[in-house]
Amino acid sequence: MAEKSFKYVIVGGGVAAGYAAREFAKQGLKPGELAIISKEAVAPYERPALSKAYLFPEGFARLPGFHCCVGSGGERLLPQWYKEQGIELILSTEIVKADLAAQTLLSAAGEVFKYHVLIIATGSTVIRLTDFGVQGADSKNIFYLREIDDANKLIEVIKAKKNGKCVIVGGGYIGLELGAVMKMNNFDVSMVYPEPWCMPRLFTADIAAFYEGYYANKGIKIIKGTVAVGFTADANGEVKDVKLKDGRVLEADIVVVGVGGRPLMTLFKGQVEEEKGGIKTDGFFKTSVPDVYAVGDVATFPMKLYGDIRRVEHVDHARKSAEQSVKAIKATEEGKSIDEYDYLPYFYSRSFDLSWQFYGDNVGDTVLFGDNNPTSPKPKFGSYWIKNGKIVGAFLEGGNPEENKAIAKIARLQPPVEGLEELKNEGLSFACKI
Ligand code: FDA
Ligand code: NAD
């Protein structure tokens, strides 16, 4: 059986792996020291592109255009770059067993990989409707979106079912971004989700009302307060109808499901401490096992700013946690110390002509400001979250780079506010003057 040994192994070849590789190269790496093992067939890329420009009908993005680290304005790391750095990219290779005590990984094809230091960067997988036993949920043309292969399959069927009907199940990130791109592809789109408004984990009712209004004006039908309980298929096994819990039936040529993600950590179950549904780490992304680090979607880490611990499923954290772990690894080797991770949550999304950013924590009272009329030619509005008399979170739709920087700054600095009414009147200028 083939056995390979490396000083550092990153298991998972997604966003965090790409940014960790760049940091290793920056810190100094000898050829053959680092391997990235990924079940995907391509070098690390900026996953957010998959639900946006990758699916555009025209002017679409394709690899190698969005390999890491272009998403944060950095250099594009092509497969050639890894070669030049002496980093082994072991692609199309799924790790099926991890033995942390023996510092060994086993692939589906039977290869054995040994390491001194391991970075777990396996990310998330999608929650499937078949997991809940939804009838007919294994019919053809019901799609989930996580990896480039999923996107490629969806594109094939978008072409085959031209101008057809699409039902989007879920009103979170995937739901809203896919609803928009399917409409841009000229599908007749319906969206179904159980909550009273979209993105309830982040959006207030006021924020959601804008996006729901905007989507409705684009011709997207929004059906709230119910779920998909079954699918019927035609003679070819292709989805035909979506049955809703409230009794309605929607015709569908394509269904896209986005009902949440689940961190991929089964390989390490029982071998490493867990917390809040993720692998427990410290402010350097060290796990409970020596020389094993966990970054990105799988890591539950101390959120210094709020004095608690959290898991974050967003790209900015995947990038930064990866960099932090590599800095920590190198500092440990050199007997040096680095500062603990001090993360300011940053989430964003784009759809149609819209673009929003959010920084901080969405807890406490909220104040909405600006023009949130979905029919405005250039809507620009936002919201502050206020807790214990201080601004702790800020959201902005349609901001320019300076304004986005201002809301990031305000969420970090947490200035006190006099009154909510004054804050509402001042709106964005309150953030811009800080
Ligand atoms: P990531 O999922 O990127 O990578 C994990 C890698 O590990 C994958 O390559 C996987 O194949 C591999 N792997 C898993 N198990 C393995 C095994 N056993 N053996 C080998 N390889 C294995 N966030 C945001 O802030 N803004 C945005 O706009 C978007 N948009 C977006 C769109 C879509 C379609 C998705 C799915 C997600 C987003 N996100 C996002 C979330 C963001 O992409 C996500 O948080 C990061 O990709 C997480 O980075 P990781 O490296 O942790 O996992
Ligand atoms: P999500 O958690 O954002 O949304 C899940 C949504 O599923 C809920 O809001 C709810 O409306 C819906 N839901 C739950 N059960 C349902 C059911 N039975 N029927 C219908 N709807 C149901 O998850 P997602 O949108 O699937 O995204 C998956 C992952 O990808 C997440 O980690 C997310 O952070 C990431 N992602 C992020 C972005 C971004 O940051 N812009 C974009 C795409 C994906």
UniProtKB/TrEMBL annotation:
Give the stretches traversing the membrane. Answer: none
Instruction: Please report the stretch or stretches of sequence annotated as the Monodehydroascorbate reductase 3-like C-terminal domain.
Output: 344-431
Top enzyme class, one word, equals oxidoreductase
For this record, the Gene Ontology CC terms, alphabetical, are: cytoplasm
Q: What is its EC number?
A: 1.6.5.4
Q: Which SUPFAM superfamilies match?
A: FAD/NAD(P)-binding domain (SSF51905), FAD/NAD-linked reductases, dimerisation (C-terminal) domain (SSF55424)
Q: Which residues form the FAD/NAD(P)-binding domain?
A: 6-322
* Keyword annotations from UniProtKB, A to Z: FAD, Flavoprotein, NAD, NADP, Oxidoreductase, Redox-active center
Reaction(s) this enzyme catalyzes, per UniProt: 2 monodehydro-L-ascorbate radical + NADH + H(+) = 2 L-ascorbate + NAD(+)
Co-factor requirement = FAD
Record's InterPro entries?
Answer: FAD-oxidoreductase/Apoptosis, FAD/NAD-bd_sf, FAD/NAD-binding_dom, FAD/NAD-linked_Rdtase_dimer_sf, MDHAR3-like_C
Domain of life according to the entry: Eukaryota
A GO molecular-function annotation: monodehydroascorbate reductase (NADH) activity
Which PANTHER family does the record cross-reference, listed alphabetically?
A: APOPTOSIS-INDUCING FACTOR 1, MONODEHYDROASCORBATE REDUCTASE 1, PEROXISOMAL
**Protein role:** Catalyzes the conversion of monodehydroascorbate to ascorbate, oxidizing NADH in the process.
**Family listed:** Belongs to the FAD-dependent oxidoreductase family.
- State what protein this is by name: monodehydroascorbate reductase (NADH)
UniProt source species:
Rhodamnia argentea
Gene name tied to this protein: LOC115743371
